[in-house]
Write a sequence for this structure.
């Protein structure tokens, strides 16, 4: 069998095919490469904002699912523990229970100081579950106990500032412009709780200097919404969710830096809070609606203005 060569016979003559010539004919020219790069850059410029908006929408969807699960967990804990369970939220400026952040930290042990410092970044996004009574407690003696670690909503989502600033008996009506349905949102109930954990009650004194006034919702042992005095809540609860960010500035000692208005709508030393787009918690809302009698949560939406 004859081996193939690069020589072809045609008409008694011979011709040699150059491999270099074949390779060069299959390559891209510099102009073609620059044209492809330009087209890719144009596509990225057109698609980039859409992808960003999609990710923001995905963040609020994840926050909605997480908040629904958290509310359901608080309800189930109350039923299984046969006690009242409080779902606590991290408000802005929680260290203002003392004259300044350094004074607030002084009574705490090193581990608790780290916990408080970590919670500075969880303003408007952090939550935890707490029971003040345990099965077997003696009459008049309570055993507070945190039932989880402090958790946070996904990035680019938070509970809007106006929900925290509403008085518990004040009402903010949100109307669905598509069908005229409205929802009367009231402010969080608030009370003093051991903070950042229950150990502050046993390691330090007095109690008043180691408790912090925090917003909450609460479920009784039947899984119903309850008020601070143990009575059934007289209204359904709504927890709005917002797209945007909460910016906290701290110094080298991890102490919050004063941020005066307009950068801090919460007032001096509060975080910078931005809803993006502005007012989306009202005009394009996701509301976690909790039925007062059953304690079950569902979502109310207006995604199209």
């Amino acid at each position: 069998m004859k081996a193939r060569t690069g020589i072809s016979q045609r008409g008694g003559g011979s011709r040699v095919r150059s491999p270099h010539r074949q390779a060069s004919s299959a390559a891209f020219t510099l102009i073609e490469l620059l044209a492809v790069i330009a087209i890719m850059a144009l596509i990225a410029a057109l698609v980039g904002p859409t992808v960003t908006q999609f990710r923001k929408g995905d963040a609020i969807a994840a926050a909605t699912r997480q908040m629904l699960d958290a509310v359901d967990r608080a309800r189930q804990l109350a039923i299984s523990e046969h006690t009242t369970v409080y779902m606590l939220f991290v408000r802005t400026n929680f260290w203002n229970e003392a004259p300044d952040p350094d004074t607030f930290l002084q009574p705490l042990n090193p581990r608790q100081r780290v916990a408080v410092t970590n919670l500075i970044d969880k303003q408007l996004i952090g939550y935890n579950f707490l029971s003040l009574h345990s099965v077997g407690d003696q009459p008049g003696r309570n055993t507070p106990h945190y039932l989880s670690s402090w958790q946070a909503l996904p990035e680019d989502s938070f509970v809007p500032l106006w929900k925290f600033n509403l008085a518990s008996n004040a009402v903010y009506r949100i109307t669905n412009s598509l069908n005229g349905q409205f929802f009367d949102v009231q402010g969080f109930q608030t009370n003093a709780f051991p903070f950042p954990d229950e150990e502050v009650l046993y390691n330090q004194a007095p109690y008043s200097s180691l408790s912090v006034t925090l917003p909450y919702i609460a479920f009784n042992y039947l899984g119903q919404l309850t008020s601070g005095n143990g009575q059934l809540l007289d209204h359904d609860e709504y927890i709005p969710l917002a797209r945007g960010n909460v910016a906290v500035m701290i110094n080298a000692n991890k102490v919050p830096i004063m941020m005066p208005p307009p950068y801090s709508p919460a007032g001096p030393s509060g975080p910078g809070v931005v809803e993006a787009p502005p007012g989306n918690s009202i005009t394009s809302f996701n509301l976690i609606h909790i039925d007062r009698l059953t304690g079950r949560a569902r979502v109310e939406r207006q995604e199209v203005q």
